[in-house]
Amino acid sequence: MICPVCSCLCDDIEIVDGKIMNACKRGCEFFSKYEENRSKPLVEGREVNIDEAIDAAVNLLKQSKSVAIYGLDTTVVEAQKKAIELAEKLEAYIDDNSSFCLGEFVEAVLKEEVPTTTLEEVRDNAYVMFYWGSNPHYSIPRHMSRYTYYPRGRKRPRGYEEDRFLVVVDVRRSETATLAKKNARFILVEDDLELIDSFFKVLEGKAYKYSSDAAIILREMKKSDFNVVFGGLGLKYGLKDLKPFFDLVNKLNEVAPLYFIPAGFHGNMRGFNETLFENVGVVNRFSFKEQNSKEEFAFTELLKREKIDTALIVGTDPVSSLPFEVSLKLRKIKTIVVDPRNSLTARIANVVIPSAFSGLETSGTMVRSDGVRFKLEAIEEREINDVSILDRLVGEL
Amino acid sequence: MMRFTKFLKVEASFVIARHTLISDETKANVEPVVFLNPEFAKKSGIKENDVVEIEREGKTVKLRVKYLEEAPEDGGLIPNGVFANYISDLNKFKKFKAQIQVAEGDPTSLEEILAKFKS
After folding, report:
1. Distance of alpha carbon A94 from its chain centroid, rounded?
2. Helices (H), A34-185
3. CA A364, CA A378: separation in Å to the nearest integer?
4. Could you read off the pLDDT of B89-98 as tens digits, one per residue?
5. Per the CB < 8 Å rule, is B90 touching A320?
6. Is A179 left (phi over 0), alpha (psi -120 to 50) or beta?
7. Helix axes A211-221, A192-203, angle to 10 degrees
């Protein structure tokens, strides 16, 4: 079966006699504890039945003047489509975690502003591989062992011992950085832009802060016709503007082929980005009322600017994941939470609708970080799930 | 007995990142922990399992100290989640500087933070 926890979507998970095989620590915890801390149908803290909770959500949405639908990165594409349909019907805002996560990276890939590839191609062909602002050791724990650094590939039969060159760029010597010993460079940066500038300077024959590292990496890249850079959240937040990074990837392609894949996010964040992109041409923060995408339509900005009176939050936990100064604004609006977990946000919501875990209790499609689609088969199909809940909301509004 | 280090408040760098040793996929509870670089902690008079108060821009959170070699040399790592986000903001979402000192009492609880949403 397929693990839906992170954007690796590992498809070799087996549960044999209660033992979870092949999963990482995150996956093991998900599969072994999915029955714990489940949400219950609630309206204003009072336990109700599921129909009453959905009816209360319908009433709240009917009374609202400005709705945002938010989250959706842990659910299946089929539910994401329903959420987009609902947003259109309500002339609502729709956004996911990618607006403060790696959405800009995915958008650049979908708009073909940088060359990209698949993880299978990386495994078979990649020589130089950058992990820039990403610590896969904890965020996407099997990324390196299944797809990138450790496996022996078709053109890389000697694996990491001789056939890979690892580059780790981070603001600290992370667990991944400690692997950068033989055939590798670890670059401790204070400012990611200085490293980008160093590559450009070296290509011009000039010296700069990290020119020694950059020169070594460029020399290694030239040895191969396939190199890859994985960009993580550290890179996104290390740069105010991602354009210099995309310019660098394209410039380095004049030296040797270099592909880009965003690294590390929720199981189906890319699914949401692609689904919205197919519908309206952008990956996140879209207003169906204004038929436009703007920075101020990000869920965080809508909360900060007090532009919404109701939020429908599906499969995400903003009380946990957003800065307190932003999430505290949830106090001022009505919140409807659709989630299998009794998350922190569910604990403060006006209406809670318990759902099923996508990929485990409901089947559907998810999209891996590199854009490859997977069909997830549930081990027990639940009647009440994100698709059925959103479908009912669409039908009753 | 009161420790002298209780009065030392120092500036430290903090990185916000995922750390699976304390992750909780069930969302039931989150351990209020900060991983400090051992050398930095020792220089600052902070021992493993101490409770420290981390203050940034008028907000404070109390966390239990664990040592981590891979933490930033001049500070620590706070796992993604509600405790890190209590003192972060969108401009300094993954990395910030803050004041740290040894504190008395228990770490901040989830209930204390959730109470602020209900007040």
Report:
1. 16
2. 50-63, 77-90, 103-110, 119-125, 136-139, 159-162
3. 8
4. 988 888 999 9
5. no
6. alpha
7. 60
Contacts of A237 in chain B (CB under 8 A): 93-95
Report which of A349, A354, A360, A344 is spatially closest to residue A386, judged by C-alpha positions: A354
* pTM of the complete model beyond 0.90: yes
- Do B15 and A172 meet the contact criterion of CB atoms below 8 Å apart? yes
Most distant CA pair in chain B: distance in Å? 40
Q: Which residues contact A307 (CB under 8 A, 6 or more apart)?
A: A66, A93, A296, A301
What is the rounded average pLDDT of the residues A137-156?
95
Q: What domains, with CATH codes, occur in chain A?
A: 38-100+267-396 (3.40.50.740), 103-262 (3.40.228.10)
The CA distance from A389 to B8, in Å, is: 54
Q: Quick: pLDDT tens for A349-380.
A: 999 999 999 999 999 999 999 999 999 999 99
Which residues span the domain enclosing B62?
4-21+30-118
- Cβ distance of A177 and B20 shorter than 8 Å: no
Question: What pLDDT does B110 receive?
Answer: 92
Q: What is the mean pLDDT of residues A304-327?
A: 97
pLDDT attached to residue B1: 52
| Number of structural domains chain B divides into | 1
Q: What percent of chain A has pLDDT over 90?
A: 98
- Look at residue B22 in the predicted model and tell me its pLDDT: 66
- Which of A237, A344, A348 comes nearest B27 by C-beta? A344
CATH number of the domain enclosing B79:
2.40.40.20
User: What's the ipTM?
Assistant: 0.92
Nearest CA-CA distance, residue B30 and chain A, Å:
10
